[in-house]
Amino acid sequence: MAFSALIELPMLHVNCGNVLTDRIKVLAPIQKCQPRLIEAWGTGPSPQPLTTRMLRAKKFGATDARDQIYALFGMTSDIEELGITVDYIKSCAESYTAVAAALLQRQQKMEILSRCRNPKAQKDLPSWVPDWSQPAPVMIHDPRYGLFSAGRRTMTQKLFARFTMGRNTMKQKLRVEVKTLFARGSILGSVKQLGWSSDAVSEEEWETSPQLVRTGLGIISDFFNTNCTAYRTLKDQEDAIWRTPIADMEVGLFGPNGRFNRRASAQMRNAFEAFRNPSLRPNEETEQCKHRYLACMLATFLGRRYFSTSTGHLGLGPLDVRVGDVVCGIIDSSVPFVIRQIGPGSREQSKTQYELVGECYVHGIMDGELWQNKSEIEELILV
């Protein structure tokens, strides 16, 4: 366990945008361990599902972008089940699309949608297909830990639906036709206002992390007070302000709820208050919690921006989110997504089509609340 902890510290440092304490940097050489050693420590020698390999694999500089996924086939346990083979006749876009379609249709692996980002390096990729040739972003949905259930009903909601409607209306029916993904979900509302974004932060500001966090929390609070009306009680309002900047997660090496990520605890609330009120008397425990809050906030913020919805919710989404974009929940997904309506197609395409912009955190709908109010379920068409 001690060796695992030593390995995790520098990895955690990198994953959090190099914002942790300088004492961790002395362990950076551990990152230079040979890939096979890291592989043995991380997932063990036995074959793993392809999704696990793909979501955890780092970009390894393949000269042929198709090898970013093909190289993993020999280390996976479910290639036959997925029905995919190495095929260099296909273009990179065709290869990536075939793999994504198999994972979605045969295994319902909704988590790969969280890997999608814009812009993509590979041309002709549908918006719902991840570009595996690009470095993996820090995702709100961590495939190792099931923290959220935005696309699922709670047990109480399931029982209510069963007795009132007599059938399961929340069943997902994924299908792919050529480059189009059809998925069932529900729309929360549209993006109404845009807030603070990571591209508005200068390099000098990134280097002064504690001050950046204090400034940012003030900006977020002002934005919330002006635009977010969905939270009725004072507690709900306070929760939205301190939980959203860290996507309701906290970084921790050990604990009963996971080694890296778990839902934010009262310690993170105390850290938030310490940042917001620097006059509070510091103590060692609070200072440690501040480091964890800072690390999680800045890592989550990188490549993202805050927004409010037409329903008055506070969200944190992709950097390229626009006013008028749509926030939706997709059945069986862990997190909500931002999608963008595209222009009208042919007469045969009478249904609205969307592009997937990316995953998002929207405070107040991360645990299935979207489905409480008999939300209308519809077929979402992603191209």
UniProtKB/TrEMBL annotation:
Q: Which InterPro entries does the protein's record reference?
A: HetReg/Transcr_Mod (IPR052895)
Note one Pfam family from the annotation: Het-6_barrel
In terms of PANTHER family, this protein maps to:
ANKYRIN REPEAT DOMAIN-CONTAINING PROTEIN 39 HOMOLOG-RELATED, HETEROKARYON INCOMPATIBILITY DOMAIN-CONTAINING PROTEIN
Protein name per the record: Heterokaryon incompatibility domain-containing protein
Q: What is the lineage of its organism?
A: Eukaryota, Fungi, Dikarya, Ascomycota, Pezizomycotina
